[in-house]
Design goal:
Blueprint (H helix, E strand, L loop, with lengths): L1 H30 L1 H23 L6 E6 L3 E3 L4 E8 L8 E6 L12 E4 L6 E8 L5 E13 L6 E15 L25 E13 L11 H7 L3 E9 L2 E6 L7 H17 L3 E7 L4 E7 L2 H13 L8 H7 L9 E6 L4 H12 L3 E8 L7 H11 L4 E6 L6 H7 L1
Parallel strand pairs: 2-8, 11-12, 11-14, 14-15, 15-16
Antiparallel strand pairs: 1-3, 3-6, 4-5, 4-7, 7-8, 9-10, 12-13
Helix pairs in contact: 1-2, 4-5, 6-7
Length: about 400
């Protein structure tokens, strides 16, 4: 329907052009004199040029959008170049080129440019999108529009040029330190899984039920006439599961940014981690692994994740509890402490889970009075509450280590 109306509009403007030409000729014939004929002859070039513009095949142009790379980090700049090439030398008074910038970038006015081609066969122009927002952004079409000097005749063509860029969340370099259980009252054994580093023996002791046959120190056993086994250095498990709150909030982008930062920090330290988040569109779970491939998978998801009104973090802990292994440290990332969340976290803590909750706020925003109360409640149950401020992610674990 739109194309039909455009064709009808072009036909009407051509008819109007001939009507104006006829009117000026009639005026010169009936009025006579220098002024009337001067007006008629002056209008003829504009009328002829308008007719040629209407007949000019605008599809003669080849349009190319050039983007150097298709993966960026949030707040980076995007340089876009539009190149126009044609075969003919037909003089063009003006042309409006409009690159349809995705609404998700929210800088649509940058893609529009008025140029004066004249006889040129090749043209290009550039524009820069500053501070790219996180997400997947799809460029679709480029529109060309040209016309005559008096603005009576206009022709346009839309070129479908699909390009996709992916903007990863902004992250900060952090030094990750494993969380230890923290209690305000009494002394309680750590709930983190204890493993033995069998590559480093630090002593010997008497054999105990459950010791492996390969651990027996035969030389020491022969000397003491009793079964002796090697004593190995003990180390804590570094397996972690990061659970991100995908509920819509004013701090959602900061939550995503901090999640990306902590994922990179954990994997950079050589630990293994898994990831879980649920939004309106999808449930995403990455089993516990390490390495660059795990980081790419999680960051790719964080680049596309959207805030929703689906499951709260408390509901995720309840619904997905079958995924949680007791030997794994649960790292919860949210922007708000709630009664329901603390109840679920307290229940998991009573089941021998080691839990840390990162409460992410904007800069200069502190925990509310209610959240401070929940923080004190959590400390008594071995749950670590760590406030995080935007722009100060590096300080997160320095505060934990001294807290």
């Amino acid at each position: 329907m739109k194309k039909y109306m455009q064709k009808l509009n072009r036909i009407w403007k051509l008819i109007l052009l001939f009507i104006l030409l006829g009117m000026t000729f009639s005026y010169a014939m009936f009025q006579g004199g220098f002024v009337s004929w001067f007006l008629f002859y002056s209008f003829i070039p504009f009328a002829l040029y308008g007719l040629l513009v209407a007949l000019y095949p605008i599809r003669d142009w080849e349009v190319t959008r050039k983007i150097k790379k298709h993966e960026y980090s949030a707040k980076e700049e995007l340089l876009v170049e539009i190149e126009l090439v044609r075969k003919s030398y037909f003089p063009i008074f003006y042309m409006v080129v409009e690159d349809a910038i995705p609404s998700s970038i929210n800088q649509e006015e940058l893609g529009k440019k008025i140029i004066m081609p004249g006889f040129k066969r090749k043209l290009n122009y550039q524009y820069v999108v500053t501070e790219l927002p996180r997400g997947e952004h799809i460029f679709h079409e480029i529109q060309l529009k040209m016309g005559d000097p008096i603005g009576l005749i206009e022709t346009e063509k839309i070129y479908e040029k699909k390009e996709k860029i992916l903007v990863f969340p902004h992250y900060e370099e952090m030094l990750f330190k494993p969380l230890e259980n923290h209690y305000e009252q009494g002394m309680t054994a750590s709930r983190e899984r204890v493993q033995r580093d069998t590559t480093m023996a630090v002593g010997i002791r008497e054999y105990q039920t459950g010791d492996r046959f390969s651990w027996i120190n035969w030389k020491a056993s022969a000397k003491r006439n009793i079964m002796m086994t090697k004593e190995f250095e003990q180390k804590q498990s570094q397996d972690m599961l990061v659970v991100m709150d995908s509920m819509e909030s004013k701090n959602f982008e900061v939550v995503v940014s901090f999640t990306a930062s902590i994922v990179r920090a954990i994997l950079k330290k050589g630990a293994q981690m898994g990831f879980l988040s649920i939004d309106d569109k999808e449930r995403k779970f990455f089993p516990i692994r390490g390495g660059e491939s795990q980081q790419q998978l999680v960051l790719y998801h964080l680049a596309k994740v959207t805030a929703g009104e689906g499951l709260t973090l408390a509901h995720i802990l309840e619904k997905e509890s079958s995924l949680f292994q007791q030997q794994t440290t649960l790292l919860l990332v949210t922007s708000e402490l709630t009664n329901q969340l603390m109840e679920k976290a307290g229940y998991l803590s009573s089941k021998q889970f080691n839990i840390g909750i990162f409460v992410v706020k904007n800069a200069k925003e502190n925990l509310s009075a209610e959240e401070r109360t929940w923080s004190a409640f959590a400390s008594q149950r071995g749950i670590r509450i760590i406030p995080v401020s935007a722009g100060r992610f590096k300080e997160t674990f320095s505060e934990v280590s001294t807290g």
